[in-house]
Amino acid sequence: MHREPVAPHLLRADIPSDLEYICLKCLEKAPGERYATMSDLAGDLDCFLEGKTIARRVLSAPQRLVYECRRNPATAARLTCLGLFFTIEQVWRLVFGITTRNFYLVASVSDGSYTKGRFVESAR
Questions:
Q1: What are the residue boundaries of the structural domains of the chain, listed by start?
Q2: Do 7 and 20 touch, CB atoms closer than 8 A?
Q3: How does pLDDT run across 81-113, given as a tens digit for each residue?
């Protein structure tokens, strides 16, 4: 009840994607995401049976992101932590004026591997 339904293609690989879409739309948790009327459902089923294209709602990138985060909360939490880490790192670099090139230049000069304006492998 609290999890997303299993995609039909995971149970049977031969299920067409249009039929899977219809099934998953019927099983949506949010009432606003399901078919509004039975005639809408019947229309999509008729189109599917006749081999016509069904009317799918195209999700924008933010809507798709929210949808995927709801389906996989653990992955969403990991990606959020990773994003926070990189954001904090960039703020740290801006505050302290550290750039990647300066960091490597200082490290290379200190071990003697910087020569003639380019980096060379250290002999160590």
A1: 8-50, 61-119
A2: yes
A3: 999 999 998 888 887 776 655 555 555 555 555
